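Agenda item 2: BES complex prediction
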Amino acid sequence: MDVELARLDLPAAAARRTPALLVLVADGFAPGDDALSAWIAKARASGDFKTEAGRLLHSYGAAGLAAERLLLAGVGDGGAAAVRKAVTAAVAALRGGGAAALTLCFAQAPGARAVQAATQALQDASYRYQATRGKAEPPSRLRRATVGVPEVAAARAEFARALGTAQGVTLAREWANRPANHATPALLAGAARALAKHPGIDCQVLGPKEVAKLGMGAFEAVARGSGEELRFIVLRYGGAPKSAAPVVLVGKGITFDTGGISIKPAAAMDEMKFDMCGAASVLGVFRALAELKPAINVVGLVPACENMPDGRAIKPGDVVTSLSGQTIEILNTDAEGRLVLCDALTYAERFKPRAVIDIATLTGACVIALGGVRSGLFASSDALAGALQAAGERALDPCWRLPLDDEYAEGLKTNFADVANVGGRPAGAVTAAKFLQRFAGAFDWAHLDIAGTAWKGGAAKGATGRPVGLLVEYLLGLVEAPAPAAARTPRKPVKGGAKSKTKAKAKA
Ligand code: BES
Ligand code: MN
Ligand code: ZN
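Presented output:
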């Protein structure tokens, strides 16, 4: 949806010709003497409208208003979370109706981040998956929105940040939603390559030969059982001088997870097309970086492959050698995410990163622990953990830190290799993180387990785009003193990385 920012107070909103006027009303509204204030006061006095977050009152035509439709939406305390809830409900009510455009305004001065929350919610609520749906459903008529604020200058930066982030969230949702036969490793690589059309972004894609030559034995082991070739995607965003150490984002890109020989039960197995949501979130973050152009450097790494059972597939008990040189006994082929991630983490060392964050739909155990509300966070650095937690709160994309005591790694011991890939059922999200930590000793590291938050099941089945909001917020927070606009034009990053020996061939 096209969203613009405009100056609008209540009298101006009352006079505005628009198919639909959405007014966000917080607790303690004090009416002025304009027509809109009169409507709000009347609706509250009658008991038909309450300012509780998410409450709506929809009317068609109202005396003294130029708008065709009026929607009052309660936003409770006026906080960002309440604004998001209200706007989401309002867009759901208007979609499928006749209104082609919507004007949103605040009955009281918007609080911190209210403009961002409203703008992102408009975009999020109007996204519809279409790629494989044919023409069955006509697209919604609601295509345009105006966010009205009392002072445009004060809201401009927040508004731009919201639009950039929303583009990233939408891209992540789109790729995550596509079925596995429409989002193969090669197609994901194509999506990454398309991002490199933006100034400041560069993309390299490695295929099976390059990955074998590098010695990524754990990643290769997972890909063996599939007819789809693996891809290793390296994205680079250069918004700061080359000397500035990058943040490296590593996204799990299992485009379908059958479990392999340790095959999963049939029920809901289709949802394992979402096992590349970590990868999709990395693509989404780069889309947002292309828009927002912050003065930082970021590298994105995506090991992408399918996990399939086959005559050539890895078997329980097989031992493979990872890029780090550590040998791994694969006791359960369904614990494949950590196998592709461990080689990507070792690869990350070459960028001499300031921090490495991996993002993965890693464990069912994390879904049991935290459900769909907060992503699981693990970190080797308290400062990094704190920054990610705070970013999650600000972005309304929260996470919760879980422990990494060494005792949790006991179960990963084996007589046949340096480490086993599973440690038993208790604390499954933690043992998975302990496995990854063995490959993340060379830098500050955090791991986001998004198994519960990256998509929704049931009737609303679909990707959420999380944790793009959290990650973009964290990255923007790294820009301490913004350089003048002219100095912030992103440069094309140099191919090959810090000490890359890889001669990457074009693959897609
Ligand atoms: N992709 C799954 C994790 C998952 C499962 C995410 C269900 C969301 C919903 C991962 O590859 C996996 O299969 N993990 C196993 C690990 C186990 C074998 C130690 C799991 O969680 O069951
Ligand atoms: Mn699995
Ligand atoms: Zn998986």
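Discussion summary: Confidence is low (pLDDT under 50) at residues 481-488, 494-508.
Owner for follow-up: CH.
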